[in-house]
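A common beginner's mistake is to predict each chain separately and then try to dock the pieces by hand. The better habit, illustrated here, is to supply every component at once so that their relative placement is modeled jointly.
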Amino acid sequence: MYHNYQDGYVEVISGCMFAGKTEELLRRVRVLSYGRQKIQLFKPLMDNRFEAEMVVSHAGTRHESIQIQNAIDILDHIDETSEIVAIDEVQFMDEEIIKVVDYLADRGIRVMVAGLDLDFRGEPFGVMPTLITKAEFVVKLTAVCMRCGAPGTRSQRMIDGRPADYYDSVIMVGASESYEAVCRHCHEVPNKPCI
Ligand SMILES: [Zn+2]
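With all components supplied together, the output reads:
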């Protein structure tokens, strides 16, 4: 049977650190590029862990990307022939990203975003809850808890070798900072208010 439906919807790839979100986003980009689909990949300017104009997964997969300062800037870079827009590290985007994603999907573009669903405190991360509820398709990837081996769903922030405090600022100048994937039981957030 022939279906003549309209294109355009939103997919979210969510999860903690070391769950393979970027790898999954790049896998989808690669599969679609085999199908000769026109794809544009964006990432926020602040993500400078790896080369500037590439999105690179921990596993080493890479794809060229456009770095943007503000969510609305995506619209300035959209090629008229683009069929797919992918955004990595979407949790770092400002709130306008919600309108931008809706706008693109409403106009027939398949929008794929990847981002951290929880911050280091284990609280919902910025725009992610809204994106997840508005999306047509959502996957939550899990890592492996680096302490006990259970499904890892939290990003454990360590500062100078100790678990980061609930009230520590997001940017700690001069501190040595690292992250681990952990499960809910092994996640340590000193001074986190309970109930
Ligand atoms: Zn654990």
